[in-house]
Backbone:
């Protein structure tokens, strides 16, 4: 039998889902969907091999050698799935898996898509729901964080109803781990749309030292309202109390509970978490009446409780060029025809550090001309000069960083205007230069770029670290797009700190 490769250009390893129920079993959240028969008839082409593996290394995407091969493998992968053929090396088929995730921004959707990929699930990120997808996990970005509450509710309700047509094994509401957005309204809307009596919200990420204890939110043991989140331009944090941060809603009761306490049968329960053990304890309390909601680590623990086994984050050197030498993700040390473009639209402290370090290493950082932050007749001239400078640098250097990186004035909508200038600049560069890899900081920046390029469906192809993931626009061979939330840091192999 011909070896079939996953789109990440790596052969599936013989990894199995420990204790995963057979197709004859039916149970609640921790088993196979009771709607399996209807989903098999409605979606006969969706199939997953028993214990299908995430690649042992997820590091090998953006080498020059891998790029063209990747396109061929994605096409082969789709063709074999659509032909209903077996998709792994040892010919086993197993239970259908379909998981739906709804997130209020793109990087949040991508973060959970990366978690699914880590657990061996074929994951896609959608900015527009596409039912014909054959993915095991679809993470849908509703782009609702900045919407009025009524519009956020409408979008989430519509998304939840769309997922229900796929009879998913379960759905999950992704929320910002720092509790920004219309969280309670969206959770309540999703809960009602799928017919659940309560929701369990676990926003803590203890591995990132983001915990909830005594009803208070801490980051590195500092109350959240004393961290950089106090300066968030849209949702400035003024208290460490999770109830104060989230606000109240008259739509359903809100409770904050420890894991050893009884929980209500209705409403939204916010679970306190200080460590991974408590995440597992909360996951064990989920049942068919409960909508799970929260951050990435709770989602990962739910997958573990369902029998999926995680694969370690990818290491270096697993994809090799034709000459047999290691071909890593970054282009450092390669010839100049492999190009990387970094797009920095975030104003976070981590972005400032990244730009400072990049300049110190001699990387080309091309900041937006300050004239674009002003009103005047010379804006077009400044745009042209910035574009010409970027193109000229790409002729001699393989890595270029473009960033807003200029002081904001008090003009109305200035942040929105600068972001639009940045995205149009990136679009112009991509039209003129063969860029193999694009790295984007910040959810708003990533979402605007995907919209501008009309990329509404993306295949997950690598997870560097939690929240730092690479995706390939569906049906395209390049560029691979790596994104992260603005407050996260780039993995060392991306930033160059590991060199």
Residues:
């Amino acid at each position: 039998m011909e070896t079939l490769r996953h789109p990440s250009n790596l052969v599936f390893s013989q990894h199995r889902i420990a204790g995963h129920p057979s197709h004859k079993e039916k149970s609640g959240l921790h088993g196979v969907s009771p709607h399996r028969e209807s989903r098999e008839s409605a979606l006969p082409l969706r199939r997953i091999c028993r214990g299908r593996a995430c690649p042992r290394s997820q590091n090998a995407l953006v080498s020059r050698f891998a790029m063209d091969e990747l396109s061929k493998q994605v096409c082969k992968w789709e063709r074999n799935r659509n032909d209903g053929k077996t998709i792994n090396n040892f010919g086993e088929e197993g239970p259908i898996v379909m998981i739906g995730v709804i997130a209020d921004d793109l990087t949040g959707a991508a973060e959970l898509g990366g978690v699914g990929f880590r657990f061996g699930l074929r994951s896609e990120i959608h900015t527009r729901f596409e039912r014909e997808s054959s993915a095991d996990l679809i993470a849908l970005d509703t782009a609702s964080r900045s919407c009025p509450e009524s519009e956020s509710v409408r979008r989430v309700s519509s998304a939840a109803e769309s997922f229900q047509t796929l009879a998913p094994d379960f759905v999950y509401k992704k929320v910002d781990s720092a509790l920004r957005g219309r969280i309670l309204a969206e959770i309540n809307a999703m809960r009602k749309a799928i017919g659940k009596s309560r929701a369990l919200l676990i926003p803590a990420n203890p591995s990132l030292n983001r915990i909830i204890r005594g009803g208070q939110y801490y980051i590195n043991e500092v109350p959240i309202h004393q961290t950089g989140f106090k300066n968030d331009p849209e949702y400035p944090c003024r208290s460490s109390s999770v109830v104060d941060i989230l606000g109240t809603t008259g739509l359903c009761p809100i409770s904050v509970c420890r894991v050893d306490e009884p929980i209500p049968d209705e409403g939204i329960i916010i679970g306190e978490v200080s460590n991974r053990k408590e995440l597992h304890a909360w996951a064990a309390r989920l049942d068919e009446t409960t909508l799970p909601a929260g951050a990435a680590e709770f989602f990962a623990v739910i997958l573990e409780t369902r029998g999926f086994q995680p694969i370690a984050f990818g290491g270096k050197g697993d994809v090799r060029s034709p000459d047999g030498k290691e071909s890593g993700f970054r282009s450092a040390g390669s010839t100049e025809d492999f190009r990387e473009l970094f797009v920095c639209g975030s104003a976070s402290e981590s972005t400032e550090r990244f730009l400072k370090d990049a300049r110190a290493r001699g990387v080309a950082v091309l900041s937006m001309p300050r004239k674009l932050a002003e009103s005047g007749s010379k804006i077009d001239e400044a745009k042209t000069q910035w574009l010409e400078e970027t193109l000229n640098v790409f002729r001699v250097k393989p890595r270029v960083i473009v960033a807003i990186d200029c002081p904001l004035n008090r003009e109305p909508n200035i942040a929105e205007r600068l972001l639009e200038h940045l995205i149009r600049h990136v679009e112009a560069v991509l039209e003129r230069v063969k860029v193999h890899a694009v790295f984007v900081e910040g959810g708003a920046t990533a979402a605007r770029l995907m919209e501008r390029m009309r990329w509404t469906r993306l295949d997950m192809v690598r997870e560097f670290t939690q929240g730092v993931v690479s995706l390939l626009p569906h049906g395209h061979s390049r560029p691979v797009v790596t994104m992260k939330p603005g407050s996260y840091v780039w993995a060392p192999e991306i930033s160059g700190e590991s060199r």
About this structure: Confidence is low (pLDDT under 50) at residues 1-95, 314-336. The radius of gyration is 23 Å. The chain is about 30% helix and 15% strand.
